[in-house]
Amino acid sequence: MAATTEFLLVTVAAYFAAVLYHRMVLLQSPDPAKYIPESLLISTLDLLVSIGLRQYSRIQTQPRHVFLWNGASGVFLVFSCFLSTTFLLKISEDYSRASVMVQAVSVGFAVLCARAMWFSLLQSAIASGLVDARRVILIGDPGHCSHFSARAMATGIRTIHSFEFPTVTTCPSLPAFPGAIQVPPDACQLVADCRPLRADDIIILISQQDVPSALALASALSDLPVDVHVVPVGSLDLMAVSRITQFGDMVTMRIFRSPLTPFNRAVKRAFDLAAAIVGLILVSPLFVIVPLAIKLESRGPVLFRQTRHGYNNEPIRVLKFRSMTVMEDGDNFKPVTRHDPRVTRLGRLLRRTNIDELPQLLNVLVGDMSIVGPRPHATAQNEAFSKLISSFSRRHNVKPGITGWAQVHGYRGDTDTLEKMQRRVEHDLYYIDNWSLLLDLRILLLTLFSREVYMNAY
Fold it and tell me: How far is CA 445 from each of CA 235, 371, 429, 438, 448, rounded to the nearest angstrom?
């Protein structure tokens, strides 16, 4: 049904894109005898690519972004094939190049809309129990099977049956060979019991003592037309964040990865430079007014330099407009509290409006900070909380930012309880694990226009 819907939408989108372009730009009507077959060809190619690359297989269990990205890449492949075909057949002159480009954009949008709609409908059906994402058989200890089944049910994966792990003994009728795999004698019966259940997957939940016979059991289950999985008991949380990857000529289980690829770091750095330059130009009057106001109100330097931890936990000197009567740093640092007497009258205004953070645009220019990222804490705070929160230092796997995902959700200001810092860290880690340029832009817009950004600012 999803493939049929996409086929029809692609046909309509391709044809009407050509019609609109010809009527609005070329001021003429396109030849239906030429563009209707062309639209059908494009939709057929899209269908063949989707089926050939198995993009619709297991739509129930693949993430939304993967399903959408596969659709977008499929459209690129379709139009590459279409243009190559028209060139080889020497009929490319019959089609306007601009018209084909408009069709590509229109078809891409149609594919993304169709897939987003079907994905949402399918997830709703799975959540309501109308559709089973996958039907699985579990093999293992009954307690472990029950725990796994409950966890899988949350994603629409239904357990249709569970079996205990077969008893492992060597077969006495066969000679024992050195290094021979011990074969569960009732594996054949287990295969026979599983066959009529018509499951999609079989999950073998193994404990340490089951490891030697797991390969033999999996080999026996390979007679069934299902996917066979092996899950070590007690490692579900570990497996949830792991990926099987190719490492040279070996296969490894990658638990964590560097949050940004070299390309992503280059994109983020380019965005930081552009945003910092534009920001400095826009707020340049404040770099004249604020220093004069600070000097008129109290004695001391205009800029406050404080040591904080940056990328890879390395110390950096963060700039701020001075908003207090003291210049605390290092072990002498004490967090600011509500109605703190150390904060000047002008300082309260600067802190409440976040104007005191503007000099950090210079930190961004020199590369110590980013526009968006986890907010850097004073070194004394870092050392204290890193001993209490195990994942605290992961915040330094990217450059610290002037604003961040935690700040736009109101998690800033006093951290007098461990829970407040944990919530801040959770948001920072979400940002690190889900970074994208669009997320940076979203956070930047929220920083400018969201009321939550200014909560707990004192």
Answer: 40, 12, 20, 11, 5
